[in-house]
Structure formats: C-alpha cells, structure tokens
Amino acid sequence: MRLIIGIITVFACVLGGYMAMGGHIEVLWQPFEAVIILGAAIGAFVIANSGPVLKQSLGVFGILLKGPRYNKAAYVELLGLQFTLFKLVQSKGVLALEPHVENPHESAIFNNFPTFAKNHHAVEFLCDYLRMVTLGTNVAHEMEALMDEELETHHQENERLVGAIQALADGTPALGIVAAVLGVIKTMGAISEPPEVLGHLIGGALVGTFLGVFVAYGFFGPMAQSLRTTFEAESKYFLSMKVGLLAHISGYPPAIAIEFARKALMSEVRPTFAEVDEATANLPNPT
Fold first, then answer.
1. DSSP H stretches of helix in the chain
2. What is the pLDDT of residues 103-126, one digit of tens each?
3. What is the pTM of this model?
4. Nearest-CA neighbor of 132 among 103, 97, 105, 176?
C-alpha cells in the first residue's frame, strides 16, 4: 500500500502540477525517448551486475510491496523459540539439542513456531551455531566473531541489490541527456522547418531529460532507499538470534538470554517485557 500511494503521489503531483500551469500532457508522450532511456538503463543494469543480483532483482517489487517480512508477532515467536531451546539445555543438557538441530524439519520444537520453521535461512543460521554448541564451542567472543562474519556476508549480498538499483538511479539522468541530445540532432536535421515544427521537435527532445531525471529521483532512488531500509529491519531478526545465543553461551538463564535478544530489536516491533513473559509462560515444556 505504501508503494502504491507513493507512486500515485509522484505522478499526481508532477503531472498534475504540469497540467495546472497550462502544460499539454500529450506533449510528454514520447515513446521512443522512453525506449532510449529505459532500454539503455536495462542494458547497463545487465552489464553491471552478476547473475545472482539479476535474479534477485526480479523480486524487487515484491519486496517493496510487502516491506519487512517480520512483525511484532514474528519476533515474539522467535523469542519464544529461543526460550524453549535454552530451557531444554538448562533442564536436559546441551546434547538434547542434537535431534532438533540435525533434523529441524522434523523437530517438534521448531514446528511449534511455524513462521521461523518456514524461513530456511533463519533455520540454517540458528541450527549451525547450536550444532557448534553441542560440539563443545563455548567461547562467546569467538562465536560472536564468526556470527559477525556470516551476518556481514548476508548484508553484502543484500547491499549488492541496493547498490545496483542506486546505480540505476544515478545513471538514468545521464541517459536522459543522451536521449535529449539525439532529439536535438534530429531537430537540427529539420532546421528548415517552420518554428511550430521545430518547437515540437525541441520539446520532444527535452522530454528525454525530464524522463531521465523523473524516473531516477521519483522512482529508482526511493526504491533503493526502501530496499535498504527493509533489509536493515530484517537483519534485526538474525541479530536477535545472535545476541540471545551469545547470552546463553555466556551462562545466562533462559529468561535473561531472551531479554538480551529482545533488546536488539527495533522499537516499533520490539515486544514489551510483559508480552514476552506472557508468551513464554504459555509455552509447552521442551522435549
């Protein structure tokens, strides 16, 4: 909804303002200018980016429409999962984690938290580090360094897409100038025509500059920023797992470990202490 409202607002204000001051909307209909600018932009995008980035870019509009995939309920569930796992270790020992981390899709604990269980990357991340705990890794700062490296890699993978869209925003104004120059060249070839014809041709050429700047700063730039904001918000999901697990390895009891994890979340989606306490109190005993 936010994306749709933004697009409508951009078009309404720019085109509505143009028409309100006496402009003729049909003059802006220059399809070949659009072909030059957007076609060249797509070609440059393909040249500049690797296969994985191009594949990831196909889902950009889905990401922008949905926004961050995690809401407060998802974070309450995540904290509940961590509490259950840490409680299991507290009551039955660290080796009780083995059947759950080796076969997470068959784990009764993971399946009690469906939002988490459907997130392949999150399941893999948590299980990898819990497996290391079962193998005897208990030095928090060493685990933290390894987690930071993995999270930084994940951030870089997302940032490649953000950077690609931002490069598109940076390049389209220049491609608009290319289209305008080609329009001027066409106009110079008709220099003997009467003024009304030349005026139409010059106006069409200038539409190229308008279109390049319009799509760059009205759409591509904001899209890149929206993607960056979304990815940053989603990264807190993994940061919460990291902080909770490190607190657990450091010897804190489950209730304190998930409080560490809760504090890592952004304020707009962070559940209160009372909400987490109520949610964990109703969880079944881990087995």
1. 2-20, 31-48, 51-57, 60-66, 72-92, 98-102, 108-111, 114-117, 120-134, 140-188, 195-215, 221-249, 254-263, 273-281
2. 999 888 999 999 999 999 999 999
3. 0.85
4. 97
